[in-house]
Prior knowledge:
Oligomer: single chain
CATH architecture: Up-down Bundle
Structural class: mainly alpha
CATH class: Mainly Alpha
Radius of gyration: 22 Å
CATH superfamily: MFS general substrate transporter like domains
CATH topology: Growth Hormone, Chain: A
Number of helices: 20
Shape: globular
Largest sheet: none
Amino acid sequence: MSNPAARQSDDHSSLIAKPAHQLRTSAACPVIDHDTRDEGDVLSSARLSPSCIGIMAAAGGIAVANLYYNQPMLPDIGHSFDVSANVIAVLPMLTQIGYALGLFLFVPLGDIVDRHRLVLALLLGIIVSLVGLVIAPSLVWLDVATLTLGISSVLAQVLVAFAAQLSPPQHRGRVVGTLQAGILAGILLARTVSGTVSAHLGWRLMFWLAAAMNLGLLVVLHRVLPRTPPATSLPYLHTLWSLRDLWQSYPQLRTSSFIGALLFAAFSVFWTTLAFHLAEPPFGYGPQVAGLFGLLGAVGAVSAPIAGHLTDIRGAAFTVAIGTLITAAAFVVFMLAESSLVMLALGVVVLDVGIIAAMNGNQSTILSLAPQATSRTNTIYMVLYFAGGALGSYTGGLTWHHFGWPSVTALGLFYSCTAVLVRFAAWMPAQRQPDQPRILPSTPQAAEKRTAEYQ
C-alpha cells in the first residue's frame, strides 16, 4: 500500500518554484535536488547517503544530550556553589526554557537561511555555553550559560527538518525515524553518562568532555553537510508571523501537534516520578538505578527505523495510531507491575516504542505538508510537544505527592488514551475525504495561491 501523504507532498512540491541555484553537495552527503527532477527520477534516485543519515542522527543525539547532562549532577553542582537543592534545581528548568526559546526564535531560520551555516552557528553556541559552564565562577554565570545552552541545543530539530528537506517523500519516514532514534538515544543516555563521569571525575570535567564532543561534531558537519538555498525569501519577522498562518491552514498540523503533546505528557508523567517510585518500599533504590532504566529506554530507540519503514509502507496516520495504542498499553503494564522490576522494565521498553512510532508518523506528516516551510511546521510541533512535556512533569509530580503511584499510572493512561481518541477522531473524516484541497491543490492556480501564502 502506498503512502498518500508522500504522494501529496511530491505533487505539491513539484508545483513550487525553486531558487535558481542548486544544492551544493559534499562527498559524504550525495543528494539530488529532487524537486527539479521528473517524478520518475524522484522515486528512483533522490536520497541522502546512509553515512550522512547516520552522522546526522548521531549529531542530533549529541546536541539534545546537552539538555540532560546536568540533572544527575545537580547535588555536586549545588555543593560546589554552596546552595540548597531547591536553588540549584532551577538549572533543568532553564535548559527547557532556553530550548523553547530556541525552537521559536531559531528553528524557523532554517527556511530563510542556508541550514549548513545555521547548524554551525548553533554548534558554536553550544561549545561556548559548555565552556561557560566549566569556568562559571558564580551562580548567575552558571544560570546564563545554562539558558544559552538550552537555546543552542535546538540544533537537533534543525537537523530533522534539514534531513526531511533533502529526502524524497518515499524515503522520508525512514530518514526521520533514524534521526529520531539518535535523538532519543541522546536523551536517555545523557543522564547515565553524566552521572558516571561526575561520580568519578567531577561535573566540570563532564562539561569539558561535552564541549570536546561538540567541537569534533562541528568539524565533521562542516565537512559533510551540503549547503542549501533558502526555501523562502520572507523577512525574519514575517517568518515568525507565518507560524500563525500555518497553524490555521493545516488541520493535520494541529492534530499531530495535539497528539504529540499528549503523548509527551504521558512520557513525562512516568519519567518525572520513576525515581520517587523506586526510592519507596518495596524497592528502596537510589538515583543510579533510575538512571539504568534510561538504558532500557535506549533499547526502544532501535525501533525508530522500523517505525519509519511502517510510515513509508502504510502511511503516517497508521503509524501514529499504532504508536498511541502501544503507549496506552505501556501504562497498563505499569499498573500491573506493582513491585516487579521486570514488569517495570518491560513497560519502559513498550513506552519508548510507542512514543517513537507516534512521533515518527507525526513528524513525517507535518514535514510533508509545506515543503518550503519544514522548519516552521517543525517549530510549531516541537513547541507544543515540549509544552505537553511540561504539563506532564507538573501534573505527574502533583499526582505522586498527593495520591501515589497507582494514580500516576492512571494519569499517564488518561493522557495516552486521549491521544488515541484524537488520532481516530481525526483519522475517520480523513478516510471519508482523502483528497484535502488545502494540502494537495487540484490545479496549478490553486497551488500558486497556497505557495504565495507561505513565501
